[in-house]
Amino acid sequence: MARVVKFYETGAPDVLRFEDADVGEPGPGEVRLRHVAVGLNFADTYFRSGIYPVPLPSGIGNEAAGVVEAVGAGVSDFVVGDRVTYTGFTNTLGAYSTQRLISAAPLIKLPEGISCETAAAMTMRGLSASYLCRRIYPFQGDETILLHAAAGGVGLIVSQWAKLLGLHVIGTVSTEAKAEVARAHGCEHIINYSHEDVAKRVREITNGAGVSVVFDSVGKDTFMASLDSLKRRGLLVCVGTASGKIPPFDPAILARKGSAYITRPGLADYIADPAEKAELVGELFGHVAAGRIHIEINQRYALEDAVQAHRDLEGRKTTGSSIFVI
Question: Which of 236, 264, 292 is the last residue of a domain?
Fold first, then answer.
């Protein structure tokens, strides 16, 4: 009997329920997967709270790593015993579980040297960092970026990847402890947004020029500061809304901010093409396996502690990556 986390109504973390489930045998195109570790991502809170609506009741989580236990008809790329990881969106929802049935399509074989725990901590975050650094903007090196939530899971990977590309990283954090973590992973300058004016400090650091790109996963609280930090014709990449949704705005403001650009990308659109996904996966796994990018797992939870894990995540008590260990 498997154990799963589900929710029957949207709301605060305590809507999550830990219960038994009968997994059964895989159907055509499916595998039965025994999870070893499950990723905890801020996007999970969007499903739970209703920001991302799904039919209820619903499982939760869309990133995990484990071992293939059984394969269904038509599955030829995987065999029993393969170590795999996956991420997606609604097509992989239900990762908070000890076992599950899942389509073989989103599965990624794990190379030797990358553990299931590391994979669960980096597949979504790492692929997000991969497309942000390699697809979203034509970085030429020796450019400066502003990275909000620099001590978070995606932030730490982006910081390290940016340094590999020759970029200069200004990171924002909320505490001195998080500042130390961000510095250790490549941030040259730190802005503590709890008591510093972000845009003003960016202008000071860049001698008035501003940054080429802002990666903003905070949303409502940082939107205007992000726009005000851009150089002329810079790009604001809205990759999350941890503080709430960005209010509606008049696009004319982009002209007033130096003909700025703005985009709200989603990982699913950068891994939809199998060839592009394979390229991003290969580059990510290569950097991690070679030690050029280090994955920080700073929080480990039991699956039955999902409520507390979500409270910690939303309370900004975490740094780096968080996982559930099965």
Answer: 264
Least confident of 42-46, 89-93, 177-181, 233-237: 89-93
The residue range of the domain holding 199 is 137-264
% of the chain surpassing 90 pLDDT: 95
Which residues, at least 6 apart from 199, have a Cβ–Cβ distance to it below 8 Å? 224, 225, 228, 229
Average pLDDT, the chain: 96
CA distance linking residue 316 with residue 298, whole number of Å? 13
The residue out of 264, 285, 312 marking a domain boundary is: 264
> How many residues in total does the chain contain?
326
Helices (H) and strands (E) in the chain, counts: 9, 16
Name the token pair of 186. Answer: 């490549």
* Amino acid, single-letter form, for residue 174: S
Q: Domain for residue 289, yes or no?
A: yes
Q: Are residues 204 and 291 part of one domain?
A: no
- Same domain as 318, residue 258: no
Rg, C-alpha atoms of the chain: 20
**Cα→Cα distances 268→38, 190, 209, Å:** 19, 31, 33
**Cα(39)–Cα(291) distance, integer angstroms:** 21
Residue 175 belongs to a domain: yes
Instruction: Answer yes or no: is pLDDT of 88 > 90.
Output: no
CB contact at 8 A, 185 and 159:
yes
Would the pTM of this model clear 0.85, i.e. be above it? yes
CA–CA separation, 95 vs 44, rounded Å? Answer: 10
Which stretches of 122-204 are assigned E, i.e. beta strand?
A: 144-147, 168-173, 189-192
Which two tokens mark 101?
């049935």
The position carrying tokens 């499916």 is 30
Q: What is the pLDDT of residues 106-161, one digit of tens each?
A: 999 999 989 999 999 999 999 999 999 999 999 998 999 999 999 999 999 999 99
